[in-house]
């Protein structure tokens, strides 16, 4: 180690020019390689990114980098508060509203306006300063106890990062329509950034699960019971998947004001996710048109184009009028066969995201005409939640996250519900790390052979993160029912296809 350091120091003996501004990165340190022919704007950009890396991996300030970065920010006309990790993006945008548009879509790819591939170096420096602010606030989460205000500020900054990526606040972490303001100031709500949406599947690592992990860690470091017992502090909390998981785990230890505040947070989150999922379900109509039923003769069903076409023979050239002797209407009634949807959800601790999403999804499908939905949750015991399937809030309150996994107890409840296999779909959501693998798989294969649609699901999270027992994955593949893993949109598509 000593020899390597000596060689490195000896190799950096090139004289430095004291007249060159500090912000150009020339006088930073022997540890940063310099090229005298490098464009000054390129040096400024490197200064900002070197500072970002230093602060992400070491909480101690590097004096030289801080001074150089401050000089850069002041030279390009940005507020020095961008360099303070204690200042939220909300606060900066509140003081400087013109920056809100620059944060939107900041990290999303933008088309080249000139098409010649030239780079605006000055604009890149400004972009580096804004990007550094967002990344540092989100990924340098610190250590120690977290207050409700700090969690709310982090959630707000994470919303700005999602906007910078061209998404809606909360979309990458929990699939919600948008975040709620955590207090006074400018809230990161809106439609997301401009420009082209990035292909988030190519981010390495996938940023959605990483954001969720950071948020979960912050929630664990927060004295949640004390916060919930104080209405003012509880009001600062923004519902998220990580927070809901902790609330569901700890709900039996809460009472009074704390329990009421916890229920309010759960219901708000359920409503937000339900809004998103309901939109996905309603994007495609269910069932084919039933032309045996005469169309209802009301104005909204009038087929104007067909009416004109069919009456063209009544056109009077002399009067320049079209006489209509028959009106034509669109068929709107759809063929619907009663379908039974049986959803079985593993409620062990690792499946909380799936539990929340599928409980809400089951309630949405339960609201569709002629769809009979049954919901079963299990760990080492099974619980039939069908009586509460229309109310995901009440359903979640009756779950008990954690424990082992024994799918045979859930199978004992599910099999008697399959009365007409051809009109039944069984959705089984689990990571399939089971105690009794062979008996459970044989029961699942029997459901598939009976003619019922069996859909094994390994992950229906908003981010698509999850793992599946390889033993089950291979056997499901051989059975012709491969495990469905990924975004919850995939499950919505499968269910709509079956019910169509």
UniProtKB/TrEMBL annotation:
SUPFAM superfamilies: vWA-like. Residues 1-24, 172-197 are annotated as: Disordered. Pfam families: VWA_CoxE. This is VWA domain containing CoxE-like protein. InterPro entries: LolB, Uncharacterised_CoxE, vWFA_dom_sf.
């Amino acid at each position: 180690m000593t020899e390597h350091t000596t060689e490195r120091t000896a190799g950096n003996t090139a004289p430095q020019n004291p007249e060159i501004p500090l912000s150009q990165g020339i006088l930073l340190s022997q540890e940063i390689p310099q090229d005298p022919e490098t464009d000054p704007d390129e040096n400024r950009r490197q200064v900002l990114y070197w500072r970002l890396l230093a602060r992400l991996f070491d909480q101690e300030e590097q004096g030289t980098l801080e001074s150089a970065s401050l000089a850069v920010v002041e030279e390009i006309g940005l507020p020095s508060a961008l360099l303070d990790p204690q200042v939220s993006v909300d606060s900066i945008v509140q003081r400087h509203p013109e920056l809100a548009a620059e944060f939107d879509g900041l990290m999303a790819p933008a088309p080249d306006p000139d098409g010649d591939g030239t780079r605006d170096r000055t604009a890149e420096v400004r972009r580096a300063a804004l990007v550094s602010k967002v990344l540092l606030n989100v990924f340098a989460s610190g250590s120690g106890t977290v207050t409700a205000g700090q969690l709310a500020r982090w959630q707000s900054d994470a919303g700005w990062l999602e906007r910078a990526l061209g998404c809606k606040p909360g979309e990458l972490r929990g699939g919600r329509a948008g975040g709620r303001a955590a207090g006074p100031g400018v809230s990161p709500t809106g439609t997301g950034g401009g420009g082209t949406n990035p292909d988030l599947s190519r981010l390495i690592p996938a940023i959605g699960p990483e954001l969720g992990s950071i948020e979960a860690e912050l929630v664990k470091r927060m004295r949640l019971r004390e916060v919930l017992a104080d209405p003012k502090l509880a009001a600062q909390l923004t519902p998220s998947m990580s927070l809901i998981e902790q609330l569901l785990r700890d709900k039996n230890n809460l009472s009074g004001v704390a329990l009421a505040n916890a229920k309010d947070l759960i219901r708000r989150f359920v409503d937000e996710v339900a809004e998103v999922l309901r939109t996905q379900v309603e994007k495609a109509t269910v069932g084919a048109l039933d032309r045996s039923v005469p169309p209802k003769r009301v104005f909204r069903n009038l087929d104007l184009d067909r009416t004109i076409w069919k009456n063209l023979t009544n056109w009077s050239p002399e009067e320049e009028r079209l006489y209509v002797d028959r009106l034509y209407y669109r068929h709107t009634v759809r063929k619907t066969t009663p379908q039974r949807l049986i959803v079985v959800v593993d409620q062990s601790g690792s499946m909380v995201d799936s539990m929340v999403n599928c409980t809400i999804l089951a309630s949405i499908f339960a609201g569709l005409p002629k769809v009979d939905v049954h919901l079963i949750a299990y760990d080492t015991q099974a619980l039939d939640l069908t009586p509460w399937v229309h109310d995901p809030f009440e359903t979640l309150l009756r779950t008990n996250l954690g424990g082992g996994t024994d799918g045979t107890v859930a199978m004992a409840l599910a099999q008697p519900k399959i009365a007409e296999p051809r009109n039944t779909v069984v959705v089984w959501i689990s990571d399939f790390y089971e105690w009794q693998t062979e008996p459970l798989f044989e029961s699942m294969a029997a459901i598939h052979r009976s003619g019922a649609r069996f859909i094994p699901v390994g992950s229906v999270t908003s981010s698509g993160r999850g793992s599946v027992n390889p033993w089950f994955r291979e056997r499901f593949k051989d059975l012709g029912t491969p495990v469905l893993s990924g975004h919850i949109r995939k499950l919505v598509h499968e269910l709509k296809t079956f019910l169509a």
